[in-house]
């Protein structure tokens, strides 16, 4: 039977946890080796150094006073309790003085040699005890032998204790690192699985699914926040596309129906003049349809940033040209037109797009302001240092609750849609403003109910 491996074991987080455990174990092992070297190793080095010092002192006594002086020094040192043992033998190997009756058999012919041996002593309970010792045996110039040794019991006990501590701490450290790694891995895998379920829900068509944010502020929370923002944007775009499709179908149904009826009527007409008029009207309807699709394409290009040719724009001159262009149109509609344009206004941007945005605002003002009303074109620098271009009219205005919606694609607040248009004018203005690091701000105009008017302002950060 094939064993099933838990999902979290195959995750990257679990592998990282295992790597963390291995690194922690290596670090712990290295630390314990260092501790051993710093304790038991230090004691050994210190003991050997003291042993060498003791041997050198006795050698100096021999050099200064011969065997008599050396024997006296050995007797004096042996009589004082201490960590060292002494044995002095003559040239025939007979004991002269010291703590032991004999020394190990590995006496050098000349020079010195280090040796380890066992010796028997009585413990504090009166029982015989075998202990280990380490010493140095030297052959004196007169063929006598001298051994200086020290007991290894204390150092061995410390070394054993340190060794036991190392072998106890090492598996504990390994177990703790693995447990910690598993806990971290399970937690990270659980968060990743939540994100996976969210994406799977969205892929299945549920655009309301959102990734959980637990409030810890970690990378998973930041990823969830970014993912949720993306899903909000995606849901908004899907709703916009759905609404756009409905709006396009609604806006094109009437002209296409009229186009079909006129062509059908033209086929029934026998008079050449009437057929010509039918074809001309059909061409007008096709032109209106093409204008709608061209507006959609232009808006898409602007929002993608593909339609910009930035240069230095003389905004004052541009506004004066537009004021001169729209003043006759306002008078023809029976509207009072005025302009208030400050001098030396300039902006880095696309002159054609800026002109189109202002023209769209002017067209809306002309379209919705009743005869006898007024509209004003202004250009000025605000106290904050922003460039503001505004169009103010005395038409019906836009209710505050509908102003944000009015800047979306294909949104027409006139439910009957009797006015000409495709619902892309303010959406186009908003896109152009965003492309130039600006925004479209809609507010109340100077009129009174039922015609409060509208103030549409393009505000650019300079």
UniProtKB/TrEMBL annotation:
Main location: membrane
Protein keywords: ATP-binding, Kinase, Membrane, Nucleotide-binding, Phosphoprotein, Transferase, Transmembrane, Transmembrane helix, Two-component regulatory system
Organism domain of life: Bacteria
SMART domains hit by this protein: HAMP, HATPase_c, HisKA
Keyword Cytoplasm: no
Positions of the Histidine kinase domain: 247-462
Residues spanning the membrane: 12-36, 165-184
InterPro entries: HAMP_dom (IPR003660), HATPase_C_sf (IPR036890), HATPase_dom (IPR003594), His_kinase_dom (IPR005467), HisK_dim/P_dom (IPR003661), HisK_dim/P_sf (IPR036097), Sig_transdc_His_kin-like_C (IPR004358), TCS_sensor_his_kinase (IPR050428)
Enzyme class: transferase
Catalytic reactions on record: ATP + protein L-histidine = ADP + protein N-phospho-L-histidine
The keyword Cell inner membrane appears for this protein: no
Domain HAMP: 186-239
E.C. code: 2.7.13.3
GO MF term (any one): ATP binding
Localization (cell): Membrane
Protein's name in the database: histidine kinase
Annotated organism of origin: Ponticaulis profundi
């Amino acid at each position: 039977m094939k064993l099933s491996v838990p999902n979290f074991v195959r995750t990257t987080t679990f592998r990282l946890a295992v790597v963390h455990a291995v690194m922690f174990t290596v670090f712990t092992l290295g630390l314990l080796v260092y501790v051993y070297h710093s304790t038991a190793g230090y004691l050994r080095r210190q003991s050997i150094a003291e042993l060498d010092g003791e041997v050198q002192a006795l050698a100096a006594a021999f050099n200064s006073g011969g065997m008599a002086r050396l024997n006296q020094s050995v007797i004096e040192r042996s009589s004082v309790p201490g960590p060292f043992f002494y044995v002095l033998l003559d040239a025939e190997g007979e004991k002269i003085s010291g703590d032991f009756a004999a020394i190990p058999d590995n006496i050098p012919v000349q020079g010195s040699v280090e040796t380890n041996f066992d010796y028997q002593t009585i413990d504090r309970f009166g029982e015989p005890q075998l202990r280990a010792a380490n010493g140095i045996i030297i052959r004196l110039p007169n063929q006598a032998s001298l051994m200086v040794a020290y007991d290894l019991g204390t150092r061995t006990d410390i070394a054993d204790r340190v060794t036991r501590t190392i072998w106890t701490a090492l598996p504990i450290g390994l177990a703790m690192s693995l447990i910690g790694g598993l806990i971290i891995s399970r937690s990270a895998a659980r968060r990743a699985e939540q994100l996976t379920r969210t994406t799977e829900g969205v892929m299945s068509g549920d655009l309301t699914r959102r990734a959980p944010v637990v409030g810890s502020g970690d990378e998973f929370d930041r990823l969830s926040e970014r993912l949720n923002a993306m899903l909000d944007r995606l849901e908004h775009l899907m709703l916009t596309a759905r609404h756009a499709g409905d709006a396009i179908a609604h806006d094109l149904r009437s002209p296409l129906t009229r186009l079909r009826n006129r062509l059908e009527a033209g086929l029934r007409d026998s008079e050449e003049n009437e057929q010509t008029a039918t074809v001309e009207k059909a061409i007008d309807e096709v032109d209106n349809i093409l204008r709608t699709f061209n507006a959609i394409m232009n808006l898409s290009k602007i929002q993608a940033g593909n339609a910009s040719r930035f240069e230095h724009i003389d905004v004052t001159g541009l506004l004066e040209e537009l004021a001169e262009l729209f003043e006759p149109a306002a008078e023809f509609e029976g509207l009072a037109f005025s302009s208030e344009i400050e001098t030396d206004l300039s902006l880095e941007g696309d002159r054609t797009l800026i002109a189109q945005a202002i023209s769209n605002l002017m067209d809306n003002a002309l379209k919705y302001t009743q005869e006898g009303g007024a509209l004003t074109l202004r250009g000025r620098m605000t106290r904050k240092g922003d460039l503001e271009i505004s169009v103010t009219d005395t038409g019906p205005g836009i209710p505050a609750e509908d102003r944000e919606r009015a800047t979306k694609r294909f949104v027409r607040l006139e439910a009957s849609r009797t006015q000409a248009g495709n619902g892309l004018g303010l959406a186009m203005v908003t896109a152009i403003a965003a492309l130039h690091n600006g925004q479209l701000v809609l507010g109340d105009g100077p009129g009174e109910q039922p015609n409060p008017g509208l103030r549409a302002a393009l505000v650019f950060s300079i």
